[in-house]
UniProtKB/TrEMBL annotation:
Entry protein name: SH3 domain-containing protein
SH3b domain boundaries: 398-463
Organism: Litorilinea aerophila
Membrane topology, from the record: Single-pass type II membrane protein
Region Disordered: start-end pairs: 477-501
Upper lineage: Bacteria, Bacillati, Chloroflexota, Caldilineae, Caldilineales
Length: 530
């Protein structure tokens, strides 16, 4: 940008040179012997002063500070030598997402992903944290309930307005991409439509695509796909998983998650895969990118009861160790998992529990990575507003529960297996009508003329709790018996990915276990159902 401005400035200066302009418009400055010497000398002094003044003004106009202050919303071009910091970003959330039944924490500002103001706010937060681009999860261009397509297009426009970059995280296991033909078509449209956008992430002029679960297909199948989609390797494809043999097709590699290792193993895991990528450069005779993953922690126990796990954030210490291990592997880029993957608890977006702590930490560590090491550079932070003074609860005449979370489910019985009767806003007062010692973490309450149950840790109680009646067992609704869903008949074709088994309504989040390599412990991604 500076070079363009300098070039145009010098062209303008030459085409409006003062000597030409003033020489043509001042015939009285004659140089004939008949003109008085004093008059000629006076005009020469005058013209010299005018010329010096113009040169001084031109120097101020072309000063570095002035050039830097020139407004520009065009994202800076990236080269393969730039130490980029990227972050996974998800656009499938809506107003019904934010409930503690499914999430361990909630955003500081609950939102719907389709809201363009939210997109703009997230982009600005990412820029403040030193993030160069979002890698936006994408389910392909088709599907009536596929909001990732319009939301990706909107994200690109919002990024262009703010000098930010957007890349694609290609969801190979998308419910809208059921076979090789659909994957091939989606990739062709991604490159022809979205990658041509001015805000799309390019490195050395090549659009960048990250892939989730490419191991659903064989290396040979991916060879055939790439031969159709990008035979000249004019784009950069970054694969994922524990099998680096896919670097025969892909241009780089990353691990979506590394929290399946003990924290002490973060260093060795990064070194191991960095070494495998380096070996692939020699083996395949082409450059391969190593992208190291950093994570603040992990918590999916509420979406996968019985099989989920928690990697504690340790007050930010785990995030710090993750960055240190990643940088020690000498990566080309670093990817943060994630900006807003709420169901798996990997978000750094401001939250009810942590505020802006992880955005601030990301800013410090991204500064250190881009500076090439040393002490983490503290990013400028806007002071957080003081917490509001809690309003004292009234002393009710009857036992009462007050909702303390953003949104709380009122259920038909004491457990998450019971159907949801209603959703209660923060501050709602609920008369308590009973409890039972078998379910000590649930209160029976009244709301809107109906009786339901609320989860005790999500409410604050007041009033004479000793008056709450102990309910007989027969008064407690029996838990519903789950009905088995028959498995759909599927024909296992070599070119098809593993069958999807979700059947939820559109725009609802569903979760499924991925039958992948056990050592990978691949985090299960939320999927939009048909």
């Amino acid at each position: 940008m500076e070079a363009d401005m300098l070039g145009s400035a010098f062209v303008d200066t030459q085409s409006n040179h003062p000597s030409n302009t003033f020489g043509a418009s001042l015939p009285l400055a004659s140089s004939t012997p008949d003109a008085p010497i004093q008059l000629r000398l006076g005009w020469r002094i005058f013209l010299t002063l005018v010329l010096l003044s113009l040169l001084a003004l031109l120097g101020l106009w072309l000063s570095p500070d002035t050039l830097k202050a020139a407004p520009s919303s065009r994202p800076a071009a990236q080269s393969s030598g730039d130490p980029l910091v990227l972050a996974f970003y998800y656009t499938w959330f809506d107003e019904q997402t934010w409930t503690y039944d499914r999430l361990s924490d909630l955003p500081a500002q609950p939102y719907a992903s389709r809201d363009r103001e939210v997109m703009g706010r997230h982009i600005q937060q990412a820029q403040g944290a030193g993030i160069d681009a979002f890698l936006v999860a994408w389910y392909g261009p088709h599907g009536d309930s596929n909001q990732t397509e319009p939301n990706l297009a909107a994200m690109l426009d919002e990024a262009a307005a703010r000098g930010f970059r957007i890349g694609i995280l290609f969801e190979t296991d998308s419910p809208f991409l059921g076979n090789v033909g659909a994957v091939t078509d989606a990739l062709q449209q991604a490159l022809s439509r979205h990658a041509s956008h001015p805000a799309y992430l390019r490195v050395d002029g090549r659009p960048v695509l990250f892939f989730w679960r490419p191991t659903l297909y064989s290396v040979d199948t991916w060879q055939a796909i790439r031969q159709q989609v990008d035979p000249g390797h004019t784009s950069i494809w970054i694969g994922e998983g524990v099998d680096t043999s896919y670097l025969a097709v892909f241009d780089g590699h990353h691990l979506y998650s590394n929290t399946w290792n003990p924290p002490a193993d973060l260093y060795s895991v990064n070194q191991k895969f960095a070494g495998q990528v380096a070996a692939a450069r020699e083996r395949f005779g082409s450059y391969k990118f190593w992208v190291a993953t950093v994570m603040p922690g992990y918590n999916d126990v509420r979406i996968r009861p019985g099989v989920g796990f928690v990697q504690d954030r340790e007050g930010g210490n785990y995030f710090a160790r993750s960055w240190q291990a990643a940088m020690a592997s000498n990566p080309n880029w670093i990817v943060i998992n994630s900006f807003n993957e709420w169901p798996e608890g990997t978000y750094i977006e401001p939250s009810a529990a942590f505020g802006e702590q992880y955005l601030a930490l990301a800013g410090q560590w991204s500064g250190q990575f881009k500076a090439g090491g040393g002490v983490a550079v503290a990013a400028a932070q806007v002071p957080a507003p003081p917490p509001p003074t809690p309003t004292p609860l009234p002393t009710p005449a009857v036992p009462t529960a007050y909702v303390t979370v953003f949104l709380l489910n009122l259920r038909a019985g004491p457990g998450t297996d019971y159907p949801i009767l209603d959703q209660l806003a923060q501050g709602t007062a609920l008369p308590i009508t009973g409890h039972h010692p078998t379910w000590p973490e649930w209160w029976q309450v009244e709301y809107g003329g109906q009786t339901g149950w609320v989860y005790a840790p999500m409410v604050q109680t007041a009033g004479p709790l000793e008056q709450v009646p102990l309910l007989p067992v027969e008064a407690v609704p029996q838990a519903p018996t789950p009905t088995a869903t028959p498995e759909p008949a599927t024909e296992a074709l070599p070119s098809q990915p593993l069958a999807q088994t979700t059947s939820q309504t559109s725009f609802q989040l569903a979760f499924q276990m991925s039958p992948v390599h056990a050592a990978d412990m691949a985090p299960v991604k939320p999927v939009l159902s048909h």
